[in-house]
Amino acid sequence: MAGTAPIGIFDSGYGGLTIFEKIREALPDRDFLYLGDNARAPYGPRSFEVVLEFARQATEHLFARGCPLVIFACNTASAKALRSIQRNDLPRSSDPTRRVLGVIRPTVEAADALSRTKHVGVVGTEGTIASRSYELEMRKLFPEIRVVSEACPMWVPLVENGETEAPAAEYFVKRHLDALFSRDGKIDTLILGCTHYPVLLPLIRKFLPAGTRAFPQGACVAESLKDYLARHPEMARRISRGGNAAFLTTESAERFSRAAEIFLRARERVRAERIELK
Ligand code: DGL
């Protein structure tokens, strides 16, 4: 269709595929262009300045390929770069009608709807937790909710190395959940504030206190995007239809294809194109 383009989906690497999968289920007739900055992942331990610079480059790349709307599937980029790009970069860009959306706000809204005790836990990368983005968004939207957070720096490497069934995975999952719940025994809803954590869900469920629900974010991000497009028909008209997905990576295309199978649970063969960001 002339004048239309895919929705851009950006992540530091493969993990955003867990979000992409849900978005595609919610919007099956739309086209998508996924960009994983695998060569520079993980973003979790990186500084604000560096994550902002990388996220800017990725956004510019997706805009240059025509995407009018870019979703930051990455929590760390949503936490550290989204607001600055929305406030400072977009208004000054050559097309200020383009949009960038993240994962934190829809996740916070979903957590509020799920929690009865109004005590919510968040697990994420060091970067996401240090930014306090979840607490700040929660305080803005739902000030009555108490948020307790825990950085889990070992969880991403365990997933990326395919070690989710190893004893080390049990050890690190239990250790961080115990630490979180020992600080607040009333938590009934746990936000998995990182793209990789849905892969650890069976293990996380094993160590969750009874009556507590772990809460992956793909479905609520997807629903929120669907709702956004319904409320913004001018943007929906700019998104191409066809049900196609293409994949870009800053690392080897072959490596991306292999690892993508972990995250898409081997349901499809992914062909990627290698690009450079600068
Ligand atoms: N995508 C990142 C996130 O959701 C996890 C991987 C990384 O640290 O780059 O925070």
Task: Write structural notes for this entry.
Pathway: Cell wall biogenesis; peptidoglycan biosynthesis. Provides the (R)-glutamate required for cell wall biosynthesis. α5 (104-114) crosses α7 (133-141). This protein is globular. The chain has a six-stranded parallel beta sheet with strand order 4-3-1-2-9-10, sandwiched between helices. Strands 6-5-7-8 form a four-stranded parallel beta sheet, with helices on both faces. It is of the alpha/beta class. It contains 13 helices and ten strands. D-glutamic acid (DGL) binds at residues 11-13, 15, 41-44, 74-76, 125, 128, 156, 194-196.
Question: What is the strand and helix layout of this fold?
Answer:
Elements: E1 7-11, H1 17-26, E2 32-36, H2 48-64, E3 69-72, H3 75-80, H4 82-89, E4 99-101, H5 104-114, E5 119-124, H6 126-131, H7 133-141, E6 146-151, H8 155-160, H9 167-183, E7 189-192, H10 201-207, E8 213-215, H11 218-231, H12 233-236, E9 245-249, H13 253-263, E10 272-274
Parallel strand pairs: 1-2, 1-3, 2-9, 3-4, 5-6, 5-7, 7-8, 9-10
The structure holds D-glutamic acid.
